[in-house]
Design goal:
It is built from 1 helix and 11 strands. Helices cover 19% and strands 44% of the residues. The longest helix has 33 residues. β10 and β11 form a beta hairpin. It folds into 2 domains: 54 residues, no CATH class; 106 residues, Immunoglobulin-like (Sandwich), CATH 2.60.40.1930. The strands form 2 sheets. Strands 3, 4, 5, 6, 7, 8, 9, 10 and 11 form a 9-stranded antiparallel beta sheet that branches. The protein has a two-stranded antiparallel ribbon with strand order 1-2. About 22% of the residues have low confidence. By secondary structure, it is α+β, with helices and mostly antiparallel strands.
C-alpha cells in the first residue's frame, strides 16, 4: 500500500489509488484499456476487409490450358477450368513427363488454397479419364478472390510432381 508518498516493503504488487481525487485515474485507465482493445479489434477487421478487397483485383489465372512446369519433378501439365466461380468447378488436367509422354496411372490430389486469407477449401482428387488426362469434377471455392490449386501427382505412392496453379475466382 502507498503511504505518505512511500511504498512499504510488504506492499502488494498492485497499489490501489486512495479514494478521492485520484480515483478517476483508475477508472480512466480501465476505460482507455477497453477503448484500446476495441480500436485494435476494429483496425484488424478493417485490415481484413481491405486485404480481401485487394485480392479481388486482376490476378492472372492459369487454368486456361497453358503448359505449366512442375515446382517439383521434371513434369509439365495443362489445367483447364471454365470461368472459375464460387461453388463447384470441374477441372481437367493433362500431365506429361520430361519427354512429353502422357503420364498414366497417377493419383492426383488437389488442394485449393487462398493464401491471402490463410485458409483452404475441400481437397479433392482427379480421376484418370484417358491416358494422361485427369478430371476433378468438384473443385470447391467457398468465396471469390485469388486462389491457388496445390496439385500433387503420385505414381505408385510416391509424389513425382507438384504444381501450384493460380486461379482468380469471380
Amino acid at each position: 500500500m502507498i503511504s505518505g508518498g512511500r511504498v512499504r516493503q510488504n506492499a502488494p504488487a498492485m497499489a490501489v489509488a486512495p479514494p478521492g481525487r485520484w480515483a478517476y485515474l483508475d477508472v480512466g485507465l480501465n476505460m482507455w484499456q477497453q477503448s484500446s482493445l476495441e480500436t485494435v479489434v476494429v483496425a484488424v477487421a478493417a485490415f481484413g476487409l481491405l486485404s480481401c478487397a485487394a485480392e479481388t483485383g486482376e490476378a492472372e489465372s492459369m487454368v486456361d490450358g497453358r503448359l505449366l512446369e512442375a515446382e517439383q519433378g521434371t513434369f509439365t501439365a495443362t489445367f483447364e477450368m471454365n470461368a472459375p466461380h464460387k461453388g463447384l468447378n470441374p477441372l481437367t488436367i493433362e500431365v506429361f513427363d520430361g519427354e512429353d509422354e502422357a503420364v498414366s496411372g497417377a493419383d492426383m490430389e488437389i488442394s485449393p488454397w487462398m493464401p491471402g486469407h490463410g485458409h483452404g477449401s475441400l481437397d479433392t482428387v482427379a480421376e484418370e479419364d484417358e491416358p494422361g488426362v485427369y478430371i476433378a469434377s468438384e473443385v470447391y471455392f467457398n468465396m471469390t478472390g485469388y486462389w491457388e490449386l496445390h496439385v500433387a501427382a503420385a505414381v505408385e505412392g510416391e509424389i513425382v510432381a507438384k504444381f501450384v496453379v493460380p486461379v482468380q475466382v469471380r
